[in-house]
Specification:
DNA-repair_Swi5, mainly alpha, DNA damage, about 0% strand, about 150 residues, DNA repair, Swi5-domain-containing protein
């Protein structure tokens, strides 16, 4: 053997290829849980703390509104004044409550239209009286006991 061959055989041995029996490298450690409350976030980033606080407030508001909605649905009656049948599903009750609310809103809008038409007619008549008497409309309104904002 030559001196080069001796050096290659006497040098460090080649590492064996990994086998299925060898231990696998450990997985990275899981990240530590981060701060979850607004107080924990404050030292890190004040904007994150403000957002966390706002989110908490909004979540509480949503829970309150959901509870209030459930109370209103439970109190809703049919248009006839009878309570809703017990065998109705929650979805049917919600639909009926929404339908009842929409009916009341439509009725109120209709009444407002009627009121405005009557008010316009009354103001027109007071304008005619003011012209006939040659006075201001406000004086005619005072004569009839109507305030300026009525």
């Amino acid at each position: 053997m030559t001196s080069q061959e001796n050096q290659s055989t006497t040098s460090t041995p080649h590492p064996a290829p990994p086998s299925s029996d060898s231990a696998l490298p450990s997985s990275p450690t899981p990240p530590k849980p981060g701060p979850s409350t607004a107080e924990d976030l404050a030292p890190l980033n004040p904007r994150l703390a403000a957002l966390a606080t706002k989110r908490t407030t909004l979540t509480q508001t949503l829970e309150d509104l959901t509870a209030h909605r459930a109370t209103l649905i439970a109190r809703t009656t049919l248009r006839s004044g009878l309570s809703m049948p017990a065998e109705w599903s929650e979805e049917q009750r919600e639909r009926q409550a929404l339908s009842s609310a929409n009916a009341v809103i439509k009725e109120h809008i209709g009444l407002l239209h009627r009121y405005n038409e009557i008010k316009d007619i009354g103001q027109g008549l007071m304008g005619l009286l003011a012209d006939q008497r040659a006075v201001r409309v406000s004086e005619v309104m005072e004569d009839f006991g109507v305030a300026g904002k009525d």
